[in-house]
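Entry:
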Amino acid sequence: MLLINDQRRNTSNLKFETSRRGLSENTQDEYYTKIKQFQNYYDKPATEQTIEDIKNYLHHLLTVLSKVRQVSTESNTQTL
């Protein structure tokens, strides 16, 4: 339950920050989706991820997922 609360708090902070920066609703939703996917991949909040976790996740996107479907790795990179 603690993990779920941490993830909710982090995504709430993300929504606040993207809104404060004046990003469009679509961009905010896209950032939220990318961070949620990232958190789910490691099953821990994004704030607990390391630089190495980010690198490994981006490698995963480039190698594994890009073979299955077209993934916008540029979008993921910018978000993370």
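The chain has four helices and no strands.
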